[in-house]
Design a protein that fits this description.
Heat Shock Protein 90; 10 strands; 5-stranded mixed sheet; 3 domains; alpha+beta; 5-stranded antiparallel sheet; Beta-Lactamase
């Protein structure tokens, strides 16, 4: 059934009941003139409709000076786009308010336009966004502190493993050497040779695990740590790893450790999945007090299902999360060298949580 047309009085009552300032505004040069304003003007900005119909200046004076240039520039641009969208602050008698304006624009002649739209109070939305941003900052602060605690614990475990296990294995090696001198070499020589090999293997494993927990080379700085990492991977695997360290910034200890961990995970992915022959690590300064780590390879690249469903997704997610903890950025792309490029940028001092 067709709807019943509204009479003029009903239409006016309906518009006045809308939660916002409904308007018809004419714009020519810098001159603004309201040709219609509904009753929503009073609760939104404390102005009677008749005041705005007489002059737009009372409303313009309420706009925050920082938001006024965008008000005028977006209003002028709407003559070309046909749509006006502006958001800013009003300083009303009831306190500051965030408002959003949406309007359709039509040209009346080459110099004048008419806009029909609505101004809405979006203060609560803005407050919620601000609260969410504050919560996000707090969560990053907590996460970075937790990461700092974890790294400190890894460092402690690495020292304990190196010192305690090293002392035990050294003492065991001395006891074995003493027993060997007191025994018949013809009967026990092979046995002691095997025990010696096991002790050396345990000592190497202890050093390797301690280095994985926290390489002591990090104490010499990020450049030394990345060079050492490249040597380790080049020596163990059939991948030639080169380092280009161009950063001159003083990188905080925790951020240096995070960049090292990210480089380590990236090279692990290269070794396991890329079938690459070469990998390149570059560390350089970026704008805004950031340092950026880039890892390239000349491997087979990646496909979306492989990157999402396979084991590399775990490593990629770990790198992405490490970057997010410190408010940094993570990028995954195809490398100009043919494989994959990973780029992570972090603030030099990590928000002061080193």
């Amino acid at each position: 059934m067709a709807g019943v047309p509204l009479v003029e009085t009903e239409r006016s009552e309906l518009i006045d009941s809308l939660p916002g300032l409904v308007f018809v505004l004419r714009h020519g040069g810098d001159a603004l003139t309201f040709h219609y304003v509904n009753a929503g003007a009073m609760p939104l900005c404390g102005l009677r409709p008749q005041e705005l119909l007489q002059s737009a200046q009372p409303l313009l004076r309420m706009i925050d000076p920082h938001d006024l240039p965008a008000f005028h520039s977006t209003l002028r641009a709407s003559a070309m786009s046909g749509f006006w969208n502006w958001e800013g602050r009003l300083h009303t008698a009831g306190g500051p308010k965030w408002v959003n304006v949406r309007a359709q624009t039509r040209a009346l002649d080459p110099l004048n336009s008419e806009l029909t739209g609505i101004m809405l109070n979006v203060t609560q939305s803005r407050l919620r966004e601000s609260q969410l941003r504050d919560l996000s900052v707090d969560m990053r602060h907590i996460a970075s502190n937790l990461e700092s605690v974890r790294e400190a614990e890894r460092a402690r475990m690495a020292r304990d493993l190196h010192d305690d296990l090293g002392q035990i294995l050294t003492a065991l090696q001395m006891d074995v050497a003493l027993l060997r001198r007191q025994s018949d070499p013809a009967q026990t020589g092979a046995l002691f040779d095997n025990v010696g090999r096991l002790i050396r293997a345990a000592s190497d494993a202890g050093r390797r695990v301690a280095a994985e927990l926290r390489p002591t080379v990090l104490d010499l700085g990020l450049e030394a740590a990345l060079s050492w990492l490249a040597q380790q991977y080049s020596g163990r695997y059939a991948v030639d790893v080169e380092v280009d360290f161009a950063s001159r910034a003083t990188v905080g200890e925790l951020i240096a450790t995070e960049l090292y961990r990210i480089a380590q995970e990236a090279l692990t992915n290269v070794v396991r999945h890329a079938q690459a022959r070469h990998a390149w690590i570059r560390c350089a300064d970026a704008a805004g007090g950031e340092v950026c780590l880039t890892v390239d390879d000349d491997g087979r690249g990646y496909s979306a299902p492989h990157a999402v469903a396979g084991r590399p997704a775990l490593g990629l997610r770990g790198m992405r999360e490490r970057a997010a903890v410190f408010g940094g950025s993570f990028e995954l792309d195809r490398s100009p060298r043919g494989g994959v490029r990973i780029r992570v940028c972090l603030p030099v001092m990590g928000g002061g949580h080193e």
